[in-house]
Write a structure and sequence with these properties.
35 helices, eight-stranded parallel barrel, globular
Length: 833
Amino acid sequence: MTKIRGLETAAEGTGISRPLSENVNLLGALLGQVIERQAGPDMLDLVEELRLLCRRALHEQDEAPRREAESRIGELDDATLRWLLQAFSAFFHLVNQAEKREILRINRERSQAGTRPESIDEAVGRLHAEGLPLETVVDLIRRLDIQPTLTAHPTEARRHSILQKQRRIVELLELLRRPDVTRDEVEATGDALYGEIALLVATDDVRAEPPGVADEIEQGLYFLRGSIRDVASAIHRDVERALEHHYGSVVDVPVFLRWRSWIGSDRDGNPNVTPAITRHALARYRQTALEMHLDELHELREELSISERLTTLPPALREHLNALGDDPADAHAYRREPYRRLITAMEHRLRHLLDPGVDAQTDPAAGHDAEDRYDARAYIADLEVIRSALAESGFGELARHGRLGRMLVLARTFGFCTAALDVRQHSRVHEDTVAALLAAAGVESDYASLDEPARAALLERELHNARPLLSPGTDLPDVARDMLETFVLIRDARMQDPDCIGSYIVSMTHSVSDMLEPMLIAKEAGLLRSRDGGFDSALDFVPLFETIDDLASAHTRMAELFTNATYRMQLAARDGFQEIMLGYSDSNKDGGYWMANWALHRAQARLGTVCREHDVDFRLFHGRGGTVGRGGGRANLAIAAMPRAAHNGRLRVTEQGEVISFRYALPGLAHRHTEQLVSAQLLATARADAARAVANDDEGDADAWSLMDEIAAASMKAYRELIDADSFWPWYIGATPIEQISRLPIASRPVSRKNAAEVAFDDLRAIPWVFAWTQTRYIVPGWYGVGCALTDALRAGREGMLRRLYSDWPFFTAVVNNAQREMARARLDIAEK
């Protein structure tokens, strides 16, 4: 291998690939140069001494090197310890970037060989090989509705500065390993790598102050306007090419992949998310979308230099240009270039929308009068005019595969809002708000004391009553005033752009009244109206089932809603559609690993069945976290493991905090993650359709489900015996860094719905709960209780069934494999220290 900055970085026999080994060694050696330069040769010697001791302890399974390392560290002063922490943190950052580069390398090699598994091309090829006709596959694709949803919790602990340097390091590694790289480029790249590592070591990992919600909004937008923007058009292109490759047909594939966000609108337990913040979020998301489209239009204008003197101008394009009225001043230079004239007019319209000081509805340059608002649909219509004109003029391939095709995908994916915002709030807040509204209106002075039937009956009466509850100027408690302002904000935002608000999510949904309460607040804000025996409703209301008990009864709760005459009107107003969200983190914290996974699987099967029984079109929304203890793991395998009754082509899944920067930091990684989602969803939907066609919509058999019930119950019993023990909570606070985590400046959201001094197990959020276990290397949420439960099953003579389920049932396989990985990651010998 070529020397880089005088370093020999040949691969070692470490059990990893040669390219990965070379990159790890190179980055480690460059880090050594940085440490020596910044902290001196003694510090480098100390780092190397401790690294080798820890390596020996790991590979030789010998306690002596570990005890020697502990003794050596115990002798160090605080300043030296801080440098050690910075050095080893930087090393692990660098190893992670080398691993990312390795993933990209492997995927590229597989693509070159035509053997990349879990790709869209492979999925379409499998369907073709199974004999599915083109019409069936196209119908499957048209039914796909995949919506990854970005959330700010847990906030990415690493600063934006760190993430940028990490991305640059991967890019430099890519350049360094190009087969045609020159010696001069190697030297320049080596110097650049050294510089990035030097800056990384000298940059604080953690912010000096907690990020505000506005900071988190910018973090999300960084990925949306970067790698996500690129992957949206790339995945669409992959689907079209796969159909052409395997079926020989050119198909106009609809956009089925859109992103949503909670960042700036998730109010549950975060007092920092105010109506003013959500207004700011909506404005920033809109601004980002318009700027994105302006960038694309600029490039398209540079590209489409077609002259009307050299090609025929299609009549439809001429009519469209005439309908625009006066050209903007800077379009006169393009009097013989009709496409550029139209594009320039489109650019002016978007700039008018960006400039709050200009009325885009009346300005002549905007090309629209007061009744002709320029929105995403009008923008898409203009792009369609260009595409049709190009096709008619003999430039069909350019229109389909060039920048214009990409722009149409981006316009349909991101609209003028980038990502629709969901608003989420806790059911208890709705209850308090409704109680205040009813009391202020003189309808009911003590709503909180009513039982569930009385609450539901009262709410239904008020939903059908056309008169508002409040008169202007009515004084309300802060919680009710804030909640009402939030719904007014939603109303106003939707008037500007109906696509900018997604769903309204009700955390901790336990009853029918928990869904009717936010509907009543929405009615007061003008988002819902009773009319002609039905409702006009501008919003989807989404229940979130989180605890083990709520998951067990979720299908019953939805059946109660579906048979409630008032809620049926809400469904009718939303075209018979219902979204249902399932919480992975809180269910694990409540019932332990196995019970949470089984409760979620069982809930999905029952919810799919009950929705079909009531003729409700549905979409399940999976609140999955990054770690296995919060529903993490490979998303495509989780999709394959879902019960068939839950598959209908629709899917939402959260992309939470720390996961976003891994999955979307680089375009290649973003593409791989997203193609796996699409591939798995396409194949799973096809399998579910085939099973339903032969009246086989069940997953597993009664004996298997009964065994799962037993294992889940035994696992939860062991888990609850741990966390319910009187001595557990004091031990947990003392043994884990939960107190320190609660003070880390890494998130705008508190670790508890109560203040830090009052926090107890029931109040602690699932995210810091799991994070604290991880820091101590116990990783309890990913495996605890499983061993007890499986031991009981083996003693009961169930080994044969367990083997069969592990071989044949994707759900069982995934749960066991994930637990094994977490147990392998746990270091109990370290944890006990």
